[in-house]
Hints:
Layout: H1 19-32, H2 38-66, H3 68-76, H4 78-84, E1 95-99, E2 104-109, H5 118-121, H6 126-129, H7 131-139, H8 141-147, E3 157-162, E4 168-172, H9 184-188, H10 193-197
Helix pairs in contact: 2-3, 3-4, 7-8
Amino acid sequence: MPHDHHDHDHPHALLPPAPALRVRALETILTQKGLVDPAALDVIIDTYENKIGPRNGAHVVAKAWSDPAFIDALRADADAALLELGYYGRQGEHMVVVENTTDTHNIVVCTLCSCYPWPLLGIPPGWYKSDAYRARVVREPRAVLADFGVTLPADSSVRVWDSTAEVRYLVIPMRPEGTEGWSEAALMDLVTRDSMIGTGLAKVPA
């Protein structure tokens, strides 16, 4: 067969088969050649994972908390409402919002792969893509929540939403008490990425 050979001098022959390992190997090679700066890469990844994306989602949540007309629009047609704010694009289509209440807590997973609303939440965290999270959260959501430090009242229910290419979910966490009259900007600082996935809660005001 034409491809049944072992060209160990070919660059790709040095790369392991698993995607994550291949990425790490490529990063190592590029770093050794002086073509990339690991510190700069870390800053870029942190920016997209924890700042740019989640800030967009936090804006949506803060507006939903403070603007009754906007939350109604989200419930009716989330894609259209998000488009009005300028949040759209690949991996951000077919959005549905689910709202936490005193009776129901929502949590999102993608059991088949890692469907995730990038325009709103940025780069998905590693744990969201892990086999352990994807399998356990369906079977024992309360135990998974406990792992994230979230303990819910015994009489509340937990609903797990399975994202797909056809639908992606954004959790609207419960608005913290004591925030009446706060501006959207101030409310945004209480919204975390995990609270919009459902593995966390909004921050309590200091």
